[in-house]
Amino acid sequence: MTAVTGGKWMERSAMETTTQDGTATLPPRITKALIDRLTGMVAAGAAGEKREPYEMIEVYTGKAIGSLPQSSPEDVVAAAANARAAQREWASWPLSRRLAVFEKAHELLLAEHETIAELIQIGNGKTRRMAVEESCDVPMVVSHYLKVAKRVLKPVRRGGPMPIITTSTEQHRPKGVVAVISPWNFPYAISLSDSVPALIAGNGVVLKPDNKTALCVLYGVELLYKAGLPRGLLQVVCGGGPDVGPTIIENVDFVMFTGSTATGRVIGELAGRNLIGCSLELGGKNPMIVLDDADLDDVIPNAVFAVYGNSGQACMHIERIYVADRLYDEFVRRFVAAAEELGAKAGARYDYTPEFGSLASVDHMEKVAAHVEDARAKGATVHTGGVPMTDVGPAFYAPTVLTGVTADMLHATMETFGPVATIYRYSDERDVIRQANATTYGLNASVWSKDLAHARRVADRIEAGNININDGYVTTYSSKGTPSGGVKQSGVGARHGDAGLLKYTDTVNVGVQKIQVMTARARQPFDKQLRQTLMTLRLMRKLRIR
Ligand code: NAD
After folding, report:
1. Which segments of 291-367 are extended strands (E)?
2. Residue 281 is among the residues annotated as catalytic for this protein
3. What average pLDDT is seen over the chain?
4. Of 13, 179, 229, 427, which is least surrounded by CB within 10 A?
5. Boundaries of every domain in the chain
6. What pairs with residue 119 in β-bridges?
């Protein structure tokens, strides 16, 4: 693989030079003392055989920044027990007292956005802009549930089978301890935003972030404790997924997982074996359809963000672009130019100048490159990109545009999860809907048209859990009041909305019979009781009482 050289990309800032001993020099806020404090929060080393720590690196340089303790299965058992002990007290607090903690957390999380962003950047390599935007997701989720939690969690009186004489009330009780297992692409937002509703509902949480990106998560957890979360309620365990995953799932009452579809299957099986519920947010192969009446002035910049934002490492990002015949040539020309322009703004810096960041690891960059090389070898056209940008940083990969991708290529059907998209030409609307749906995934889709009714008609026929009209993915993801999840192999359940809070509760049905009318009275013949029952059922239907 060749690297792009020749000073085409932005230069590194002086701040990110490395020390002579090969360790990274980090931004001034990120001191060794802070890293030691955060890694000291991991529930590890107290029980069972001590594990080798994980060496964390700064993605921009590939240099070491410190060691992350790894939890043994015994540590995980102890962490879950500690969370459970703290949860009993937490669940007994009135909801308004629990919410007061999150009122305070909202302010702290916003105030600390620069440190949060730096910690995200160190482990993930994304741009500062994207890291700050990621940091804002958690206060948005906090704010939404502060607004609605009382309504959603309130007991609901439903009425029993016999009006007035019986009642049935729906209560929402916390499940107990919830596991939150999160990936590295939006490590802070997913870990915290999925934990917040679980906590608000009255649960304890055992949180397992990805090793690469654990620091930002630990910092967010520290802020929640500063806001007043009771000690021990939110436990962080770290380790390789297969090492700690089974023990986590055996010791909790629900699992909220975000990651690949392959791992989602494993988690679903483990949850099934333990008879606990799970919510799975998985991968995608998301299509964008540019209808023939779309305005390319609007589409191009948005398509660039939808494909290359977060360097293409967003589950809802676009990898397949279907463009109407009439617009195709102009779209390809302008999109390729925009991708090149973006690539020239790549940079490994802790400031706001770079507009295109790194991939999260060299391993992942090589996986992305392998998809592109496979497509190239089998005859696809690489219009721009298709090369690592190792002179910017070891895990950078140039924004890439492909055409001529055929079904036998890896990128055609598999999630590449990098800054790579393929453009397809279409002339028949029914056919493009069929092509958009021809995937095992169903996470997100984007439809573009000046005619909203036209776009809606197409959207109604797309198989995806999120459909954005005249947007790539931001509108659905940021709408915290609406549940957001995948269909087909992209997930089970949803986050956000009422469902995103209620899934962390057990619904308990409390029935009351004020007078004994539901059982046969002593010595009453059964045929008489049956006649009365049938008459009552007919009457209640007629009066629309039941
Ligand atoms: P991954 O499945 O490899 O890992 C996700 C998390 O699961 C990590 O913390 C990992 O350590 C852990 N894990 C792995 N094996 C495990 C096991 N056997 N038991 C328990 N935990 C285990 O995914 P990834 O590569 O980190 O993330 C990228 C994937 O996540 C992509 O497919 C992307 O589309 C998906 N994703 C989906 C959403 C969504 O909301 N639908 C959001 C972000 C990312």
Report:
1. 318-324
2. yes
3. 95
4. 427
5. 32-282+499-503, 286-479, 519-545
6. none
Entry pTM: 0.95
Cβ of 81 less than 6 Å from ligand 1: no
Quick one: pLDDT at residue 29?
96
Per-residue pLDDT tens for 295-328? 999 999 999 999 999 999 999 999 999 999 999 9
Residue 290, both tokens = 């540019």
Spell out the residues 6+ positions from residue 189 whose beta carbon is closer than 8 angstroms to its own.
Answer: 134, 135, 137, 138
Query: What tokens appear for 513 in the block?
Result: 């019979």
Residues 6+ apart with CB under 8 A from 429: 291, 458
315 C-alpha vs ligand 1 centroid, how far in Å?
A: 10
Q: What is the mean pLDDT of residues 377-383?
A: 98
Question: CA torsion sign, 511 to 513 to 518 to 520?
Answer: positive
Is residue 342 within 8 Å of residue 308, measured between CB atoms?
Answer: yes
Which runs of E-coded beta strand occur in 218-271? 234-236, 254-258
Q: CB–CB of 401/385 below 8 Å?
A: yes
| pLDDT the model gives residue 6 | 35
CA nearest neighbour of 510 among 159, 149, 91, 176: 159
Just give the CATH number of 32-282+499-503.
3.40.605.10
**Ligand 1 touching residue 415 (CB < 6 A):** yes
In this structure, which residue's CA is closest to atom 19 in ligand 1? 245
**Nearby residues of 363 by Cβ (< 8 Å), 6 or more positions away:** none
| Active-site entry in 16, 58, 134, 281 | 281
* Range 286-479 has CATH code 3.40.50.1470: no
Q: Name the strand (E) or helix (H) holding 252.
A: none
